[in-house]
Amino acid sequence: xxxxxxxVWSNCFLTLxxxxxxxxxxxxxxxxxxxxxxxxxxxxxxxxxxxxNIALLEKAWEYDTGDSIKPxxxxxTTPVIIDGVLYGVSPNxxxxxxxxxxxxxKWIFEAPDPSSRxxxxxxxxxxxxxxxxxxxxxxxxxxxxxxxxxxxxxxNFGKQGFIDLRENLDGHFENSYVAGNAAPIxxxxxxxxxxxxxxxxxxxxxxxRAFDVRSGERRWIFHTIxxxxxxxxxxxxxxxxxxxxxxxxxxxxxxLDEERGIVYIPLGSATPDFYGxxxxxxxxxxxxxxALDAGTGKYIWHFQTxxxxxxxxxxxxxxxxxxxxxxxxFIDAIxxxxxxxxxxxxxxxxxxxxxxxxxxxxLPSDLQGEEAWPTQPIPVLPEPFxxxxxxxxxxxxxTPEIHKELLNQFYKYRSGSLFIPPSLQGSWIFPGFDGGGQxxxxxxxxxxxxxxxxxxxxxxxxxMVPNPALNQDKGTxxxxxxxxxxxxxxxxxxxxxxxxxxxxxxxLTQLKNKYNEQSVLQIIDNGRNMMPSFKALxxxxxxxxxxxxxxxxxxxxAVPQTEGKHASNRDSIPKFIINGYHRFLDKxxxxxxxxxxxxxxxxNLNTGDLLWKVPLGxxxxxxxxxxxxxxxxxxxxxxxxxxxxxxxxxxQDEKIRAFNKKTGExxxxxxxxxxxxxxxxxxxxxxxxxVVIAAGGGKLGMKSSNKYIAFALP
Length: 714
What we know:
By secondary structure, this protein is mostly beta strands. The protein is built from seven helices and 41 strands. Among the domains are: about 1-75 and about 440-455 and about 600-714, Lipocalin (Beta Barrel), CATH 2.40.128; about 470-575, Orthogonal Bundle (Cytochrome Bc1 Complex, Chain D, domain 2).
């Protein structure tokens, strides 16, 4: 790593550069989108809070959403702040407006369908020529339009104030799981949307659509799984794949070049995850960054970061519109971080890579029917911001006993390569499924072209098992039908024997000791934490059968031998599924790899150099054993300011911190009422700079809260 000080330019050159790049305006003072601006760089140009006074930063206000605090509830939302008003979302997905200067409530909008809930990470704002604003946000599949001044539903939008994201997908997906978790991006009078979908064989396609901001009418659609005659159709060996394969969706957000009218959209993997025998080929446009004409949805260019994804390596963060300096000239570029710790950088207009990318040979699959793609693209630069190979020397040695136990586990599974195909033996995924660059996104300083990324480094186990749903075609009793439904819909997360996989995927073997049948039915309908809603996916009969199986109730009633939802076509069922999602943890619940377990990183996008890497987060109880600044798992991204600071929360120690952006030194920290598993927003009112974070907690089995906290100087 290079010393950052060697790369800092003179003040006069920086001033000139600022004028050239157009930073000397107020576009970076408000926080008009979930990423600050449509560039997606999470940058504030205010210097009100700076290196000299950061120690004085204090709580300016605190807002309690009034929601009852439920175990597992969280607030992943980054609010938007426009004209002195902050718009946010509560744990129960109610939309609210506050006076952003003092946190006083202006109004609350409660979504009409309380059972239709999801994870709301961002919302969108649009105003007409009369400056009449409206907020767009989703709870589950319904995308609402709400009057920004009154909090009332705009009834002439869509169906009495909302559009159903399951509709207008060029197919029948009314009963599919769909949720609009990321903020739509707005271009002129178009609302460009992605969505979260299922990751199984029942997934809807993740097509990108644009809707009229006034009427809710669909204006264009881009098929992310190409149909006959469309570009990319030839990358699917089965020419009917477009009829049955789902996902390739955008759930992480987008970026928009407003001047050129180009929208940049990162996409996830195709379904089902981990076993691709029924979707052979490179699978465009899954795992691709695509550039579309924002006005028409027409294709411009793409780059696929993973071919025929077998590792759930979705593009899980919005891209960043940047300028990079090459041979003395600036190039308008776009940067995309990934789960496996890489940064891909392209010319915004042509899609040409700024740094070389090598198609590198990877291991073949030994799983029956699978054909792993023979190569994967690896950028030569920028340097990776995450460790990528997990070997025996990396196994935690927190104590000799723990080291021995973990080594015994380590050697049971394959390791030593980044792209080991899924297998019956199993392998280590590192960075893990929630590792590398995640939905919290990266921040970029437009004056220095330095990117800041928070990063989790925790191995997860990936092991395939024969799909238990293939063991029988139909059940002969209701309980057997329930077991079949569990095998198809629940086993990949909760284990084939209901044994679970840690706090995120709890065991269901003792379910009746903690819940009654009605409460479990509500969870099935509404979802919770990582679990989506199955309300539209399962019939009432199916849910009753599942309850009977989960609670081990007596069952004497024979099931009629008719085809129902539970008796889906065997040919569509994958032969193998993942045997649960398992973090590699020691007996005390700490990561089974040597620290750091979470880091904040600075990367120079001009040179590709990793400038510094520092631990982010700490387990204070380990300090007495000499383990300080270990880092923790992180759910939330950073923001960077002209005042010399990087603000970031997202850690398991429930703190928000400010770092010196040049050195990575911690300059300030504050203990939140619960973990801030979100990305902060930074804004200015009357010359005064504020930093606000949603402190919702709730992930990883941690306590929940319903508060937003804002900070400012005295």
